[in-house]
Structures
1.
Amino acid sequence: MGCWWSRYGGYLVGFVSLFTLWHLAAVYLVGSVLFPPPSVVFRKAMVLLRNGVLIEHLWASVQRILAGFIAGSLLGIPIGLAMGSFRSLRKILEPYTEFLRFIPSVAMITVAVIWFGIGEASKIFLIVYTTIFIVILNTAAGVSAIAPNKIRAAQALGATRAQIFLHVALPATVPYILTGMRLAMANSFTTIVAAELIAANEGLGKMLWDGRMFMLVDDIFVSLVCLGLLGFAVDRMFRWSIYTFAGKYSPAT
Amino acid sequence: MSLVRLRNVQKTYRSLQGADYVAVEGFDLAIEAGEFFCLLGPSGCGKTTVLKLVAGFESPTAGEILMGDTPVTGASRDRGVVFQGDDSLYGWLTAVENVEFGLRMRGVTKSERRDRAMRYLELVGLHGQQQKYPAELSGGMKQRIQIARALVNEPTMLLMDEPFAALDAQTRALMQQELVTVWRAMRTTVLFITHDIDEAVTLGTRIGVMRAGPRAAVKGVLDVSLNGARDRTDDVFLRYYRQVYEMIRDEVAKSNARAE
């Protein structure tokens, strides 16, 4: 119990105070149907859960984020590794990354819809787009941040170039790759909501849009809370898996 | 025949502004098999440049470096290296996995390389620490891992670049004693870079004093015939100390004058 409290007690207090403040603000400060208190939102969420609408929207968004995020990372990591390893390749690819990363994924929505329609393909394209550059840049930065003595030591120990890449450069870069992926995950949330706001048949963003159209303020809040909780949960899971599977790679240990 | 010969070696670096800096020039040195050679010089004189050239991390601009009678063209496991800082250790591997690294690259079986790594960890006094990660170990212990990691590979020669410079005085003195013990047991040839006269006289069987850079070369070489434990308060020790001091004093002054 004591152990449980010291690990999660802070979160509990934080969340309870967040919902209390929200309740106080909604009921005593604003007192309008345009700002529902948590109890109302919770009841609405229960209704939407029971009739399956919420699950449908939630799952649509999660699926898109996961597919795009995984594809973007799988593409970005090798490109980043190659860019960090070969100076000439870096020079060739830098115009792409440096040019494209300043065009926000939100700005690409229109193009994505024209190219891929309003189905899954356009959403996944956008998440891949938002993921790939952050992962590439972080991975490449990780490779170039490797201490030269780590490479030299491996050379003096008889490692071949391929072995140095596999056993030194790659593991030394893992913390940077994971950081890039975590940042990309946060950006994926922004992108998916924006994309679904503009063009989608389901998803949390679509839920927000419908809420605005039909003045379903409670629905809007259910969607917002879901986004917050989902983001929090995914980020925790990410941190937990970094800690569990890659703890020894983290620079802190 | 000498184990390693440097003949008329020159190394020039080009700065980003395009200016050339000649770190060493006309550098001649011969290191014999089995000796503990200390290369001593004022800071910034190009000692580390010489080590990088011998290790094969860099190649000379002119002159030649021979190992036996083959020219050095790159790094090889003939020449194990111990670096000054701890940034050459692999933070994601435990102490014993760091020591095994070279054996693993050569495809030595897991059980055999673990056995051999453990023997060397014991030799450098790291028994019981094998499962710790470098970040969990002190500066002295990290240098021990580096020494074990280089020695387990059974190099013909061990190159050490001021390996104890970043340690506190007590740890340094202890590490020096232990290094002498290990060296006596192994008889691996050592090229040890240092700026510390005391360290050179404590460890070396020969001491080479370098001139201040740029265009540094060897000013003179001194045989140290001290057998057994070297005592810093011993008269013979002090005589050697003074002799080396006389050789290096002007060079330190020159090096400081240039720095100002």
2.
Amino acid sequence: MTATTPAGARDEGAIAALTRRHRLKPLEALPWAAAIAAYFLFPSYLPLGAQVLIMVLFALSLDLILGYGGIITLGQAAFFGVGAYTAGLLGAHGWSEPITGLLAAAAVAGALGVVTGLIVLRTEGLTLLMLTLMINVMLYEAANKASTVTGGSDGLQGVVIDPVLGLFRFDIFGRTAYLYSLAVLFLAWIIVRTVVHSPFGRSLTGIRENVARMHAIGSPVLLRRLTAYAIAAALSGVAGALLTQATQFVGQESLGVDRSGGVLIVLILGGFGRLYGAFVGAPLYMIAQDRLSAYDPAYWPLAIGGLLIAVVMLARGGVLGLCDTVLALLRGKGTR
Amino acid sequence: MSAPAAIETRGLCKSFGALPVASDIDFRLERGARHALIGPNGAGKTTFVNLVTGALAPSAGRIFLGGEDVTALPQARRVKRGLSRTFQINTLFRGLTVLENVALAIGEHMGVAGDLLRPAGSRREVIERAFASLERLGIAEEAGRLVHELPYGRQRLVEIAVALGLEPKVLLLDEPAAGVPGAEHGTIVETIESLPADIAVLIIEHDMDLVFRLARRITVLVQGSVLLEGTPQEIAEDSRVREVYLGEREHR
């Protein structure tokens, strides 16, 4: 297909592909337009909408390390849950201001990311998978045992959250929760987008593509992976804190291992390493879960499983990968 | 005292369990050298490269770069001191373009790769330098292609381009012609011949034509030990070397 392009033009194209990659494309406005439209179109679904946005944020943080950094983890809910409990414990003990609550959750989850990352990121593959899973399980059990602090399996009650900016009270229709989550997601998206297009982000991709070569070109691989891990942990913590603030409650399942699995499914469904997989996968997963569990409360995971198998078998790059394939096919036909 | 060597090893040993793969290697790579390391398969040539670069830790012995002891330094710090290598089997970012493969190396070398904020694409100087280095190797027309789309022989040149992107003082080439069709050996030879004279080059190679064309000194490694070091003529005339290469004692 490219054989028809003159060589000189292709050279410039190769340079332009790198220099223009970070520029905003019109299509990138689509998720935000859709989110704002959903606010007006489905006013009775805003609490679910807020949960979808929180899942997008959670999956976006995972994409940074899994999709870009190639760090495979089954324990990302550790950071989500720690963020959720941080915001919850602050809210239950008199610190009800939401934005500082988010920042505190980011700091605690990020610090946990640094500490655990120093241990787990020295490993790869299955060992890494098991270590992240174990840290997640240990924290879940710790929250269970420390029931005087966390409320144990009953969850943390009595969380009080002040109005956002002193103006917008968390209402029962979920309007504030939705718009607040959307604003936080937007900021997080700016952060992740900046990072993945930065030289640091490209070196993360290099680590995913070939770690031996990264060592050989003098890259401090552990430091790079640790930095990414900490950023992702902090953002996952923010997602957890958002859920706490939106629901004024912390359930023990915020630390659950199935949440770690769920966010992985979201990213696989949407397509990882593309920044927007989270935006496609989270609504797909959450809405499917909501509809299917209303239809059959017991067996809905069966359908999700079927969906996942279909995506993994037929569309390795997730829904977005499938879009790419279809577009490439259409373009291929167009030039012939 | 002579000037410090580009690379020097003293008593370098490495064993994998009970299997010694490097035994007591004393080696000097002089500045600006064109030095070949030869030996039968399994002689420990690649292990030696991995020890020098820091990909493997030695069981005993010291490694010096430009006279400084780097035995305890991690790989990345040795690279910062001017040590660069290519791999026997292509070790590239297969899903990225040829240009970005080199740009990543140059970004690391220029010390900008840790930047989290400014877009990588706005660093025009990194990309221009990467492109210029592809032009020097005659593979600029491949710049926009993904590495895995290239024939293996062309990928070998990308290996060299990435290594040179680090502007090394010492270059270790691990079988640069391996997997390259005979007709394209000329490109590899010309590329190595045209390297700046002050770069010390250690080349591991099985192709003896290539070795004798490029090397001014040759070290023969057999079963993890240095058998002999000398000029190409001395090596060619040595009966032990002939035995190793032509005799039946070596079964591997």
